[in-house]
Write a structure and sequence with these properties.
The complex is a heterodimer.
Chain A (H helix, E strand, L loop, with lengths): L2 E13 L5 E9 L2 E7 L1 H4 L3 E8 L7 H9 L5 E8 L13 E2 L9 E7 L4 E3 L1 H5 L37 E3 L3 E13 L4 E5 L9 E6 L6
Antiparallel strand pairs in A: 1-2, 1-12, 2-11, 3-4, 3-6, 4-5, 7-10, 7-12, 8-9, 10-11
Chain B lengths: L2 H9 L13 E10 L2 E15 L6 E7 L5 E7 L5 E10 L21 E2 L2
Antiparallel strand pairs in B: 1-2, 1-5, 2-3, 3-4, 5-6
The chains are: A mainly beta, B mainly beta.
């Protein structure tokens, strides 16, 4: 399992070797440090905890500083855990540095981020409800959600009924994005297509879990 | 746009692109992949529009094809598929987009040549 933490820088377009112009999202990924290795023996499951982005020591609590000190690491802002198969656990040692070059051009990755918050939104934007007629005697109903269910049978609104409410600011994963460019010098990764979240938003990049044949 | 994105976009730019103007008559050497074969096709015509957008910059070239049919093609000038652009001559033009040429046939569709 390959995984790294990074930040989204924004989108641009680049040419492929075939001369096709493709949209890409540029991510600043790594350097990440292995901060802790969790084994089934000690923690009940196998995982690797990675840290990203150095900060001033006073930005962290003493507990966090102490945790990083055990791995002889500088203060790091972000810690994230990645599940790893047990047999690959010994490839990771606390203190180890991981760079973008764990990914290769042409590979598929999944990118997870927090989507942009949209606030309280109605059914049309949030769930793609159809708009109601603008004319034919209608007033004030254009973007209304309409009926929420049947009448006195069942006499209630079903659970999970799609309604207006808070939209966005959710953990979203986009699967199978192709890696178009890797730049180890500047820790840059360009993946084809869009990635959830705002510019400078935190993202995690892992090798694709489900790859279509 | 952050400077990193800008630098990535700048890497996409070709080092040598001739200075082009709207109204120029150009020969565009375009690489075409047909199945396994690759060949270069030349398209000659007048630049009737230019779009400046960094690496996505493009020109619209119009020519009169067989039987007087107008043919327009858009080329991304920084694309690796565009091998070469030759400028044959410049014309006197007073606007940025020469879309009026589409409605003109024959002698009226001419542009006056100038030397730069």
């Amino acid at each position: 399992m390959k995984g790294l933490i990074g930040r989204k820088l924004g989108m641009t377009q680049i040419f492929t070797e075939q001369g096709e112009m493709v949209p890409v999202t540029v991510l600043e990924v790594g350097p990440c440090y292995v901060t802790q290795v969790k084994t089934p023996h000690t923690d009940g499951y196998a995982a690797v905890q990675l840290g990203f982005e150095e900060v001033k020591p006073r930005k962290l609590t003493r507990g966090q500083r102490g945790h990083l000190k055990r791995a002889q690491l500088p203060p790091l802002r972000v810690l994230r855990e990645f599940r790893v198969k047990e047999e690959h656990l010994d490839e990771y040692k606390p203190g180890q540095k991981l760079l973008v070059d764990v990914f290769n051009e042409g590979e598929l990755v999944d990118v997870t981020g927090i989507s942009k918050g949209k606030g309280f939104q109605g059914g049309v934007k949030r769930h793609g409800f159809n708009r109601q007629p603008k004319t034919h005697g209608q007033s004030d109903r254009e973007r209304a959600p309409g009926a929420a269910g049947a009448g006195s049978t069942p006499g209630r609104v079903y659970k999970g009924k799609r309604m207006p409410g808070h939209m966005g600011h959710q953990r979203v994963t986009v699967q199978n994005l192709r890696v178009m460019r890797v730049d180890p010098e500047r820790n840059l990764l360009a993946v084809r297509g869009a990635v959830p979240g705002p510019k400078n938003g935190l993202v995690t990049v892992v090798a694709a879990r489900k790859t279509r044949r | 746009m952050s400077y990193i994105l800008q630098s990535l976009a700048d890497q996409q730019l070709k080092e040598e692109v001739p200075t082009l103007y709207v109204g120029d008559i150009v020969r565009v050497h375009n690489r075409i992949v047909e199945g396994k074969n690759e060949r270069v096709q030349v398209f000659q015509g007048t630049i009737i529009a230019m779009k400046k957008a960094g690496p996505a910059s493009s020109i619209t070239v119009r020519k009169i094809g067989a039987h007087g049919v107008g043919v327009e093609r858009v080329f991304r000038i920084h694309s690796p598929r565009v091998e070469k652009i030759e400028v044959l001559r410049h014309s006197k033009v007073r606007r940025a987009k020469l879309y009026f040429l589409r409605d003109r046939v024959g002698k009226k569709a001419r542009l006056k040549q100038i030397r730069r």
